[in-house]
Structure formats: structure tokens, C-alpha cells
Design goal:
five-stranded parallel beta sheet, alpha/beta, 7 helices, 173 residues, two-stranded antiparallel sheet, homotetramer
Chain lengths: 173, 173, 173, 173
């Protein structure tokens, strides 16, 4: 199992698609975006769910946390049942988020990958995407890495997604 | 847990979104579409993965079945961990598909719902959607229900998604 | 040229795709959605652009109107240059919107089609789509038809998109 | 009016969104993608329309060319009616494509911008996007620039979209 953590617009999804292309075995890709899509529409803008503030801030409530914990247990079970799984997530709680994953995964082996991108560059890519709340990229660029321990870090500021993916694939050996 | 089964363009996704809106508790929605999205792009048109033929036929290979089994175990684990989960699926193997779900779910209680739609109407909705291979709706309309046992059936031919969702919600008690 | 007018979630887009499928000649489809997509992201939530209020209300500003007028002239020029064009629009200003189109189109022949859908049914389909502000369908259901003169009206409440499209195609005769 | 030309995955769309963000006046964005979306679904895989071959090759037929000519005339009319318009296109016929635009635009002033990207880098970004036929980026990287005359060229190989957009905006004066 591979878990990528990085801020919004740091390039996680592109790396995931490249990983799926370069790794010879089939890997399933899930992440915070597909998890949020699975929630009821009303939770995507509510106190108990997830709120995207106008300044780019993101906050989540108790219902969100409860569903997320169950979802993490489900992902762990897929891995235990034999699927290769790559996750891209945004550790809004930094080390606390990593701890949540560890609790759900039990003893499953994980390659922890930090995806860095300079704040100004991520903010520019956010503009280029055009579908994200302005400010999220800058707010999250450092925050999500606070206290997190990685096996490997990649930086998309000046390195293409495919090159980052090959670096990660080489670590899986 | 709720599992909806119906052919392409029978209206499953609309019913799922309405269910998430009318049920007071938050339900997570997953299904064959989000599962296929999680696969590597190359498996979405390959012998070992899933192939959408020009006539609307769909066939899946061994790699697909192996990943699907792991995915089903993961969904079961989410439910066991406390999440309410609604699935929309296309039982290409009819009763065989239902059997695969039963094997993965163990003793978890499931409301099995058949989603019917007259073949000609589903084929027309396929045209209106514009993003599906022409012919899938007609080919699957009967096929996916062969030998499947339901707690409840709804028919979208002349009944709106929201009304079908309310019927299903009422069955949950 | 064909112009369809109807409220949000009344089924215009589905009818357009069916029209493109049943008409033997190729028709180009444009509409208010593709026009809004062409605007800068910042105008999609601003006073001068278009604002989608939480209650489903939609208001547009001066910059929007100016760009829209130029866009309408461009659509007219495509038709004059020989393209068959079908438009789906939401006449927020009712007869005033129709007048704007007439001014832009000059003498080009248009088949004006009203797309009706009972308010409660459109509101239910809005829930089933899951990606629209709740309330838009109900607010617009009557409003957009105020004072508009049609060659033909279709009602999607109990008639499929493909059947509506065939009715419209027959009128082109 | 601004016309950007570059191969698939060279970064045109990102530059367009950044241009819309950095330019103080509102600019409308259209391009080959939105034009293809406007065509009937059946033309998106047919001899008279547009065909995306498995090797990444793209060919277009007579019906496509006829509709495209009308569309170009429409875009010209929008500009003449006062709209600022930015186009991103793929000049499959190189200088011939530029000539088609010139014929449609008459005397309208255009800033012609070439968007370059090294073939290998564009091919990697194609993998990272995951939704394009593999091979298109490499096949088009040089081909689309053959014989085309530009006012300005940008290269996204090692320069971010936002920086390219600022360079273009500076040229507008």
C-alpha cells in the first residue's frame, strides 16, 4: 500500500495516475476526493460534514470523521484481501491524520510519501485548474506535512509527475 | 447496507442521490462506476480488465474479478466499521454476481433492490445522456436480473427517482 | 435554428442530445451552460457576472449581459454561415430574454420550443442530479416562460426526452 | 483576440484559465474541445466527423470542416460585437489551420501565440491526465507548429502556466 500526502494542487492525482501506468501490477486508487464524492451532497457543505470556506480553509465535522474512520477500515480490508492500493490524501491534521491511518491499517505495510510543492507554484496551478477555491493551495502547502513521517518525499515544483512516480516505484523495489 | 442492481441507464445513480437526500443519517455511496474509475486507465480497455465493445457488450477479465473481490471485502469492512453504505451495481453475471456479494458480505444485513426499466425507455435515456456506448442499456435491461432475488423492486419507466427512493427508504423502517 | 427554453432540471440538455441523434444532418449545440463555462471563473460568482444564491435564485450583472449580447451575435453568425444550431437557454427575463435573442438573430428563422416540467417533478430531478443548487428548479419552472411565444411546447413531466425530441424534429419537417 | 496553438497536453487550457484570471477585463474562452463537445455524439467517432485513432492520430472529415468554418465565423462575429475572446486550438494542418482562421477573422486583430512543450514532457503529462489517448501529445508536439507564424511563443516545459499567461498578458499592452 502507498499513501501520498500533500496539499491541494501539489500534484498528487497526476502522480497517482502515473504510478498506475508505470507499475506492472494493477493498483486501485482512492483518496480524499473520491471519499468526499461518496458522501451525501448535503454533507459537502455542512457543519457535520466538510466546509470549504471562501478563503480556502477546510474544516470537517464529527459525522465526517466517523464516516472517514469506517472508510479507512474498508481501505485496509481491501489491502488485506489482496488488492494493491494507492491513496492520495490531504492530512489536514498533519501527524494526527497519519495516526488515524495507522490505527485503521493495523500492521499493513505502507510506503508513506510526502508530496511537496512550493506554495507560490501550487497557488499558480490552482488558478490554472480553475475549479478549486482560491487560497486552498497556499494554506495547505506546509500545514499538511506538520509532524508527518515519510519513507520518501517528492517535490513537484520543478519535477514532472511521471518522474516523481518513477522515483516512488523504484522505492517499492 | 443497500445494494441496487440494474442495467445501464436504468436510473440507479439518480435513486442513490435521492436516497442520500431523503435518509436522515449520512450514507456513503459506492458502485461499479467508482470502482472502474479506481482501476488503472489501461485496465479500462484491456483483456484482463473491462472491455466496452462497440455493440454495448461489456466483458471483464481475471484481473478485474480479483480486484473486485478485494473491493467487495473492503466495502463489507466499511459497513462492519459502522458506515451506512449504498451500492449501485450492474450484475453482469446475474445470480452469480449476487453470490459474489454474499460471499464478501458474510452475515451483514442487506436490502436487495432491483431497479427495472423497460428496455426501450432505458435505450432512449442512454441517447439523452450522450456519454454511454449505444446498446448497453438494451443489452443489460433483462440480463442483469436473471436469477437475482430481491427484497424490493422499483421500476423507473414511469416513476421518478425521488419516488423510487422514498419507496426504498420506507422499507428500511 | 432551434431555441429551447426551460427552467433548470426541466430536461433541456437531454432533449438536445436526442435531437442531435435523431436529426439526419449534424447540428451544433450551445447553451447557457457552455456560455457560463466560457466566462472567467471569477465572473461565475460575482456582482458583474452571475450569482447562484443559496435559495436557488440566479442573478446576472452588466458584464454578463454585455458578453451575452456578443455571444448571441456570434451564434447568429454561425447560423448565417451555414451551421445548423440548437440552443438551450433559461430565459431568466422571460419575454425580455426572447427579445434579446430576436435582436441578435435579425431575420434568421427560428423554431421556438418551450420545455415544460411540473415544478415538483423538476425539483425531484434536481435532487437526483445532485450537482445543482437546491431550489433553482422550482423557482424557474414558471418564471422562464412568462410572456414567451413558442412554435411548439413539450412537457417532460411524463414524456421521455427522446419522444420530445422526435416531436420537435417532426416540426422541422 | 488571442489564439493559442499547441499540441495535446502542451498546457493550453491552463494558460487560458490563468489569462482569464490575470487580465482585468473579462475574456470569453472557446476552443477545439468546446467545439467538439458541441457536435453530435455520433460525429465524435465517424468518418465525416473526428476520429481519435488508437495510436493517438486524429483525423477529421468534410462535415467537421464545414461546421468548423461556420464556428470560426461565429467566433469572429463575437469579437466584432465587442467580446474579448481567447481561443485554444490544435492546428492539425499547421499553416493551413492558421490560414482558415485568418479567412474567417477578416481584419480582426489577433495575438498569435505558440504554446510549445518538449515532446517527452507533454507525453508524461498525458499519462498524468489519464483521460487522453496515449500518443496524441507526442504525435502533435511538432506537427501543429509547421509553418505557423506567431507574435509570441511560450514554452511550458519548464515554465508554469501562470508565468506564461503573464508573458502573454504583457504583450497585449
Amino acid at each position: 500500500m502507498i499513501i501520498l500526502n500533500g496539499g491541494s494542487s501539489s500534484g498528487k492525482s497526476g502522480i497517482v495516475r502515473c504510478l498506475q501506468a508505470v507499475l506492472p501490477d494493477p493498483w486501485l486508487a482512492f483518496g480524499c476526493d473520491s471519499f468526499v464524492d461518496a458522501m451525501p451532497a448535503r454533507m459537502q457543505e455542512s457543519d457535520g460534514g466538510i466546509v470549504f470556506a471562501a478563503d480556502g480553509g477546510v474544516s470537517v465535522g464529527e459525522d465526517f470523521r466517523a464516516l472517514e474512520a469506517a472508510w479507512m477500515h474498508g481501505i485496509a480490508a481491501m489491502a488485506r484481501a489482496g488488492a494493491r492500493v494507492v491513496i492520495d490524501d490531504v492530512f489536514l491534521a498533519g501527524a494526527g491524520s497519519q495516526q488515524r491511518w495507522r490505527a485503521a491499517l493495523g500492521g499493513i505495510g505502507v510506503l508513506w510519501v510526502g508530496v511537496r510543492c512550493e506554495s507560490a507554484v501550487a497557488a499558480g496551478r490552482e488558478v490554472a485548474r480553475g475549479d478549486r477555491t482560491t487560497g486552498m493551495a497556499a494554506l495547505q502547502a506546509e500545514l499538511v506535512h506538520a509532524g508527518v513521517v515519510y519513507d520518501l518525499e517528492v517535490d513537484t515544483t520543478r519535477t514532472e509527475s511521471l518522474v516523481c512516480a518513477r522515483t516512488i516505484a523504484a522505492h517499492l523495489g
